[in-house]
Design brief:
Keywords: Oxidoreductase
Shape: globular
Protein name: NAD(P)-binding protein
InterPro entries: NAD(P)-bd_dom_sf, SDR_fam, Sec_Metab_Biosynth_Oxidored
GO molecular function: oxidoreductase activity
Number of domains: 1
Strand content: 5-15%
Radius of gyration: 20 Å
Strand order of the largest sheet: 3-2-1-4-5-6-9-10
Distance between the termini: 47 Å
Largest sheet: 8 strands, mixed
Pfam family, one: adh_short
CATH class: Alpha Beta
Number of helices: 11
Order of helices and strands: HEHEHEHEHEHHEEHEHEEHEEH
Number of strands: 12
Structural class: alpha/beta
Length: 365
C-alpha cells in the first residue's frame, strides 16, 4: 500500500509536459475535486488550463485566486484558470455546458468527476429531480456518464495528439459491487410501496441510490474503456475524506446519537484530510502505468486494485461479449475489485441512454 510520501513523490515526479494540459474538474469547487485542482496547479506551477465546474461562483473564485500563476501567458492554447457554472443535478444543464466547452476547446487531457450530490452523506434523505431522476444518482452517476459521453471527443483529440488522456470518476471503487437493472429508477419503487411504508421508502431509496451509484460507476468505466481502449478510465475510491460536506453523517433523528458517535470515530481514526487525499488521487491520475489506456479500479491510496489493459488489436465491436454474465469479468478477463459483467454493462448503457434521451428530449415521465 503506497504511503502518503509515496503518493507525493509520484506526483512530484510528473514531468511538466511540453504542451499546456487541459483539466476539467466536475465538482471542483469543494472537497476532493477542489483539492485535486489545487494540487495540479501547484505541481505545474500554474501552467495548466484548469476548468472548475460547479454551482458556487464565489467559492470557485477563491480557489482560482489561490492558484500559482506563470510568469507570462502564452498565446492560443496557453494556460488559463476558469470557472464554468454548472448544476450537475440537471442533465440539460450538463449537456449545455459540455456543448459550450466543445465550441472553444480543442482537447481535454484530464476529466475528473467528484460531485457527490445535493444531499452529501445523507442515508435518510432522498428525492427526485425535476427531470425525474433520483437525486443521489443524478450527480453520482447520470451527470458523470453525460460528461464523459459529451466531452469524449475532446479527450480522444488529446490521445490522438500523443498527449495524456485520462478520465477519472471519484466515488467508491474496489468493492466489486455487482449491479442489475431490476427497478432501476428508485422513485418507481416509492410509487409501488405499501402505504404503511411510505415514511420509510425515502430512507430505503437513499441507501439504494448511494449503493447503486458505486456499481453503476464500475459499469460506466468498463463501457467507455472498452469503446476507447487506448484511453485510461479510472474509478477510484477516495476513502473517508474530511471535507466540509463530510463532517456530519445523517442517519436520521432516531439514529442521531449513533451518527454523532460514528462521525467522531471517523474523525479520530478513519478520515483523510482532503489535501492528503488529493495527493493519492492525483498520483493515480498522473500515473505512467495508465498511459497505454484501459479500465482501472483504484484504492484510496492510489494503487490499482484491478485493471484491464486491452490488447493492441482489440475491437469492441468484435470482441465485446454481450452475453457474458460472469460478475467481475471484463471482456473475458477477471478483474479484481470490479462488479460488472459484459452483459450488465451493456444493459446499463442501453438503459442510461434511454433515460437521458427522455430527459434531454423533454419526454421523460
Amino acid at each position: 500500500m503506497p504511503s502518503l510520501e509515496d503518493a507525493k513523490a509520484a506526483v512530484a515526479a510528473f514531468p511538466t509536459p511540453s504542451y499546456v494540459p487541459v483539466a476539467v474538474f466536475a465538482g471542483g469547487t469543494s472537497g476532493v475535486g477542489q483539492a485535486m485542482a489545487e494540487a495540479l496547479a501547484r505541481q505545474l506551477h500554474g501552467r495548466v488550463h484548469i476548468i472548475l465546474l460547479g454551482r458556487n461562483a464565489a467559492a470557485a473564485q477563491r480557489i482560482l485566486d489561490s492558484f500559482p500563476k506563470p510568469a507570462s501567458a502564452s498565446e492560443d492554447g496557453g494556460w488559463k484558470h476558469e470557472f464554468v457554472q454548472c448544476d450537475a443535478n440537471s442533465m440539460k444543464n450538463v449537456q449545455a455546458v459540455c456543448a459550450e466547452l466543445k465550441t472553444r476547446l480543442k482537447r481535454v487531457n484530464f476529466l475528473v468527476m467528484s460531485a457527490a450530490g445535493p444531499r452529501g452523506n445523507s442515508f435518510t434523505e432522498s428525492d427526485v429531480t425535476e427531470e425525474g431522476i433520483d437525486d443521489h444518482l443524478s450527480m453520482r452517476y447520470f451527470s458523470r456518464y453525460l460528461y464523459v459521453r459529451e466531452l469524449l471527443p475532446l479527450v480522444k483529440a488529446a490521445e490522438a495528439s500523443g498527449q495524456h488522456a485520462h478520465v477519472m470518476s471519484v466515488l467508491g471503487a474496489g468493492f466489486g459491487m455487482g449491479f442489475s437493472l431490476k427497478d432501476p429508477m428508485l422513485h418507481e419503487e416509492r410509487a409501488r410501496s405499501w402505504k404503511f411504508l411510505q415514511g420509510l421508502t425515502p430512507k430505503f431509496a437513499a441507501v439504494k441510490g448511494m449503493v447503486r451509484g458505486v456499481g453503476y460507476n464500475d459499469g460506466l468505466i468498463a463501457y467507455f474503456a472498452a469503446q476507447n481502449p487506448s484511453i485510461a478510465f479510472t474509478h477510484i475510491m477516495p476513502g473517508q475524506v474530511w471535507t466540509a460536506g463530510a463532517q456530519t453523517l445523517d442517519l436520521g433523528w432516531l439514529l442521531a446519537p449513533l451518527g454523532w458517535l460514528l462521525t467522531l470515530q471517523r474523525r479520530i481514526f478513519l478520515v483523510i484530510p482532503q489535501d492528503d487525499c488529493a495527493q493519492y488521487m492525483l498520483s493515480a491520475l498522473l500515473s505512467p502505468d495508465t498511459e497505454r489506456g484501459g479500465a482501472f479500479f483504484t484504492s484510496m491510496h492510489g494503487s490499482v486494485v484491478g485493471g484491464h489493459v486491452f490488447p493492441a488489436d482489440y475491437d469492441a465491436q468484435r470482441d465485446w461479449r454481450d452475453e457474458d454474465t460472469r460478475t467481475g469479468y471484463l471482456q473475458g478477463v477477471r478483474v479484481k475489485g470490479y462488479g460488472g459483467s459484459d452483459k450488465t454493462v451493456t444493459e446499463l448503457n442501453k438503459w442510461t441512454e434511454e433515460v437521458l434521451e427522455g430527459v434531454l428530449s423533454g419526454s421523460a415521465a
